């Protein structure tokens, strides 16, 4: 079974604790880092080289859209999944325009993250 080296990014620390706890039940997900804003996400993507980065859309400083643009410009960028409570066609379009690989609603976080990962079988090209 493939392990997805994952970085979680959200400015809400209690949400990160909950996300880590929810994902701990899935052995195919290995959370290797956490960031609290887009600036930290860009740095962790470069240094940790995760396979998957699950990031909040709206954060102070640098949000998920700008961070996604910068991360996707890196050499061998991770798969980026944006998570947000702002689930409407306009926000989904913004997420697609910046190059994110998917969007999930935070209210259905656990089921949508696992469904997303199951759909990615064989996508990772770097070890």
What can you tell me about this protein's structure?
The protein contains five helices and five strands. It is α/β, with parallel strands linked by helices. The chain has one domain: 3-Layer(aba) Sandwich (Rossmann fold). It has a five-stranded parallel sheet with strand order 2-1-3-4-5, sandwiched between helices. The radius of gyration is 13 Å and the shape is globular.
Write the layout of secondary structure elements.
Layout: E1 4-9, H1 13-23, E2 29-35, H2 38-48, E3 52-56, H3 64-72, E4 79-84, H4 89-97, E5 102-105, H5 109-119
Parallel strand pairs: 1-2, 1-3, 3-4, 4-5
Modified residues (4-aspartylphosphate): 56
InterPro entries: CheY-like_superfamily (IPR011006), NreC/VraR/RcsB-like_REC (IPR058245), Sig_transdc_resp-reg_receiver (IPR001789), ST_Response_Regulator (IPR052048)
Protein name: Response regulator receiver domain-containing protein
If you consult CATH, what is the topology? Rossmann fold
Supply the number of helical segments. Answer: 5
**Which radius of gyration do the C-alpha atoms yield?**
13 Å
Number of domains: 1
Mean pLDDT: 89
Protein name: Response regulator receiver domain-containing protein
Modified residues (4-aspartylphosphate): 56
Pfam families: Response_reg
Domain Response regulatory: 5-121
């Amino acid at each position: 079974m493939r392990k997805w080296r994952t970085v979680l990014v959200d400015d809400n620390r209690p949400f990160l604790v909950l996300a880590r706890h929810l994902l701990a039940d899935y052995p195919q997900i290995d959370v290797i880092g956490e960031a609290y804003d887009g600036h930290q996400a860009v740095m962790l993507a470069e240094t940790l080289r995760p396979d998957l980065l699950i990031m909040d859309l709206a954060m102070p400083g640098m949000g998920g859209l700008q961070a996604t643009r910068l991360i996707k410009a890196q050499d061998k960028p991770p798969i980026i999944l944006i998570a947000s409570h702002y689930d409407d066609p306009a926000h989904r379009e913004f997420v697609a325009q910046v190059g994110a690989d998917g969007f999930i609603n935070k209210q259905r976080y656990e089921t949508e993250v696992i469904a997303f990962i199951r759909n990615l079988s064989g996508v990772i090209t770097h070890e």
